[in-house]
Design brief:
single chain, mainly beta, Immunoglobulin-like, Maltoporin, Chain A, 22-stranded antiparallel barrel, 45 strands
Length: 857
């Protein structure tokens, strides 16, 4: 749960203006909440005319709701609504003929609104608050309903604004209602808004803004509200995949909804129920070359998903609230991994089950002190099984067949939690607390490669039965371990003057299995300055240190590879099939953590300017620099030595995979952002990034081409895109609200290509890894394919109530994705021994159509 510091809301009442003495009247309704979203009772609401004459007043009830009866449904000018509640700053809102109802008003603790909002029109957008940076990307409920969102995946739609190089070993950080979690905890229609890069240098979070998705979910309401969504897609209306010999049959049906309301007519007890079920009959396309010739084949890869969640809220007086929820999720995938050069026989089947209980407690201790506690407990099970029980056969750059050899069972019982205390006094807003992203008991039954894997340098080598390497794992694959990750943080926002605010903080991070506990202090700093109250400009700068964490995979590898559980054997001159006496002669390999290993750190810094373009739109230009220190990678500490590459230094062992933190990363980027409503009929956001990213590692599983010379791998990052442009926008077509004819949403993505690493396909240095590059060829030297996609959404809403914001509404949407049917290849084959070298073998889907039906009440 986040605080929004200085927001002046411009809201308009939806009804046509009239100057008649007998103007129609209706109720002006709304809800009052505190910064955490908890409902506030006994707040005084007063409505003023343009000449500041009081028109009406009332108080919010115990559920935070209020009603001003017999208010003119049209306003000839700007009216104002003032909300007063002891212990909070007053909130003043402008109202005119376009204000949607009911109003949603957030009160702030004292001093939160002392910073300036730059006056560049009637509804200014700029502010000197740390969380109001205009480089952020935000989509609220209204936008989500009118944008082309594939499969109602709102998180995926906003993920285009993330920075791949900043996400870290454990992936993107997902923050829901202020706590880092693995999933949103509700279905799509119960998501209130999604944000990227909000307050990028906050000490409250582990990762920088461009590596963090923040979600706020809906709450319970005293009246019944809900929505039901139905989505249908059939390949008969779609274009064929670029590599498909014929159009395979695909169909998806998706049903989703949410319902909120009171429990037994109680003013204080409400509920939120949400859920979804979908069946996706997908097909993957195989484009490979085998000794018998090319294969162009469609493979069914059906996916099924079920999710249900129930949440109960109890609102106490003075804005205090407790809520508890339970959720269950089940998903399954068949023939996963098939496609491209991977044959159906090398696919996997997997299922996943999860149960989770969430608890949140908000306590307003005093007008200056707020405590927010949120924690969850859950269990998870994820078995993965190979479709074919046979040794894996990998012919570099041509095909992958045999069995997948990726069998495992992962189980987990976890606890996540955060406790945030906010104290305000004078010019200071102090936040401190504890964050526990993960305390988990994890079980991992690893039987990967227990059937062995052959690697061939070329089709000719495969035809001759001459594999380059044979890899086999044996032993006891069961381990159980406790992963502990937590952080302490403190952050102070100081508003020195109305046009200048400073935020400074520090975060201390801890993860078990690593040895640098005393040094994991990550300072953060940001400032915002408005040169003049009327200038319409805000200058921003910031910097912060962000520590990475491994995730469970690396810990599992270290425990499995300790020499007591699983032994890995690699034969660099194998027979086909492998003879038992040859395998018995191979020494076992180990996995170990470098005693010098540290948690990787990312130092990011930026400076930029924000400018108000119109009363409702802004432009931001930012330089962003990123430097990665102590980045994870793996090396073979017992690799054969040059020049013969025949004997390992320690003959007792094979591959000694050592996890190090000696990698580096360097990124320089210029980011241009636009957001807002430049015209009455259009609102949206656009972002262009010019960037250059270099590193010498791709993560904790990455091996350099030659382990004794890892600095030779310094080159373009795997995720380096020189140019990146994204646009999300909505056009309103027709008369004024609420009777538009339809809305027209668009999403445009234009990206330059990521690089491709060029390899020989052979194990030239005898380390058992077919990742060697041709002599004189730098890493990631081949420029990969770009990406271009235009998505469109056409929505028509049918209202069955005079105020469609409050009444029943039916929305019919037609979505088209990749409208121009551009063949967006995933990558190129980088193996020079392959007949497919420098050619694509997989592509993103072509044009797809999607029909959405939504019922809201």
């Amino acid at each position: 749960m986040k605080f929004v510091f200085a927001i002046l809301l411009g809201l308009w009442v939806a009804a046509p203006a009239s100057a008649q003495a007998n103007k129609p009247t209706r109720d002006l309704t709304g809800t009052i909440a505190d910064p955490s979203g908890a409902l506030v009772s006994a707040a005084t609401i007063t409505l003023f005319a343009p000449d500041n004459t009081e028109i009406a007043h009332t108080e919010s009830n115990d559920a935070g709701n209020f009603t001003l009866g017999n208010v003119h449904s049209t306003f000839p000018g700007k009216f104002h609504l003032r909300v007063h509640r002891e212990g909070f700053d007053d909130s003043i809102l402008a109202l005119d003929s376009h204000t949607p109802l009911p109003l949603k008003i957030t009160l702030h603790l004292p001093s939160v609104q002392q910073s300036v909002s730059v006056d560049a029109g009637n509804t200014p957008q700029l502010s000197t608050e740390a969380a109001d940076n205009q480089s952020a990307n935000s989509v609220d409920r209204a936008d989500l309903d009118h944008l082309p969102v594939f499969d109602m995946d709102y998180i995926g739609t906003l993920s285009r604004f993330l920075s791949d190089d900043a996400t870290g070993t454990n992936g993107v950080s997902l923050v829901v209602n202020g706590m880092e979690v693995n999933g949103p905890g509700v279905s799509a229609s119960a998501i209130k808004n999604v944000k990227i890069n909000q307050n990028p240098y906050s000490a409250l979070f582990a990762r920088p803004g461009r590596a963090r998705i923040e979600i706020t979910t809906e709450e319970g309401t005293k009246d019944f509200h809900g929505s039901a969504n139905f989505l249908f897609r059939d390949s008969v209306f779609d274009a064929s995949n670029y590599f498909a010999a014929s159009k395979p049959p695909e169909r998806r049906f998706f049903a989703e909804g949410s319902l909120t309301g009171p429990i037994h007519h109680s003013k204080n007890n409400t509920f939120l129920f949400s859920g979804e079920t979908d069946t996706d009959d997908l097909q993957s396309t195989v484009d490979a070359i085998t000794p018998t010739g090319p294969i162009h084949q469609s493979v069914p890869t059906p996916e099924h998903h079920l999710f249900v969640s129930g949440r109960v809220f109890h609102d106490y007086s003075q804005g205090n609230q407790l809520w508890v929820s339970y959720s269950y999720e089940h998903s399954s995938t068949k023939n996963g991994g098939a496609g491209g050069t991977t044959l159906p026989e090398a696919a996997t089947n997997q299922t996943e089950y999860e149960h989770e209980v969430n608890v949140a407690w908000t306590r307003v201790v005093s007008p200056h002190l707020l405590n927010q506690l949120h924690f969850l407990v859950g269990t998870n099970s994820n078995p993965v099984r190979s479709v074919t029980n046979a040794p894996a056969i990998v012919v570099q750059g041509a095909f992958t067949g045999g069995g997948a050899q990726t069998d495992y069972l992962r189980t987990e019982s976890h606890f996540d939690g955060t406790d945030l205390v906010t104290f305000t006094r004078g010019r200071h807003e102090l936040k401190f607390g504890i964050d526990v992203p993960d305390i988990s008991r994890r079980g991992f039954d690893d039987t990967r490669l227990f059937g062995g894997s052959y690697s061939f340098a070329s089709l000719a080598a495969y035809a001759a039965g001459q594999p380059a390497t044979y890899t086999l794992q044996q032993g006891n694959g069961h381990v159980v371990f406790l992963e502990k990750v937590f952080a302490l943080f403190v952050e102070d926002t100081l508003r020195l003057r109305p046009n200048l605010s400073l935020t400074g903080g520090v975060r201390y991070s801890f993860q078990n299995y690593f040895h640098d506990i005393p040094t994991n202090f990550a300072p953060r700093f940001s400032l915002a300055y408005a040169p003049g109250k009327k200038s319409g400009t805000v200058l921003r700068a910031g910097a912060g240190l962000f520590y990475d964490r491994t995730g469970p995979r690396a810990i599992s590898d270290i425990l499995h590879g300790d020499g007591l559980h699983i032994s890995r054997f690699i034969d660099t001159a194998p027979t086909y099939p492998e003879l038992p006496n040859r395998l018995a002669a191979q020494p076992p390999g180990l996995v170990q953590l470098d005693p010098r290993a540290r948690l990787p750190a990312l130092f990011q810094f930026s400076a930029g300017v924000e400018r108000q373009l119109t009363p409702k739109s802004t432009f931001a230009a930012n330089y962003i620099g990123t430097r990665g220190m102590d980045q994870f990678r793996s090396v073979d500490a017992n690799a054969p030595l040059a020049p013969n590459f025949t004997d390992r230094p320690d003959p007792r062992y094979g591959q000694l995979r050592t996890i190090q933190s000696d990698g580096h990363l360097k990124i320089n980027a210029l980011e241009l952002s636009f957001r807002g409503k430049p015209a009455p009929f259009f609102s949206g956001q656009a972002q262009y990034t010019l960037a250059k990213a270099d590193n010498n590692t791709s993560g904790i599983l990455y091996f350099p081409a030659y382990s004794y010379h890892p600095t030779a791998d310094w080159a373009r990052s795997d995720f380096d895109r020189r140019h990146k442009f994204d646009l999300l926008g909505t056009f309103k077509i027709g008369p004024t609200k609420p009777q538009e004819w339809f809305s027209f949403g668009t999403a445009l993505a234009l990206y330059s290509g990521k690089p491709v690493n060029v390899t020989t396909g052979s194990d030239n240095n005898g380390d058992g890894l077919s990742i060697d590059r041709p002599a004189g060829t730098p890493r990631n030297s081949l420029h990969g394919p770009g990406y271009a996609a235009l998505d469109l959404n056409l929505t028509r809403e049918f209202s069955f109530h005079k105020n469609k914001e409050e009444g029943r509404t039916l929305a019919l949407s037609l979505n088209a994705f990749n409208v121009l049917n551009h063949p967006n290849y995933l990558t190129y084959v980088g193996v020079i021994s392959s007949p497919l070298f420098d050619h694509p073998v997989e592509a993103n889907p072509g044009r797809r159509m999607q029909l959405n039906l939504e019922w809201k009440f």
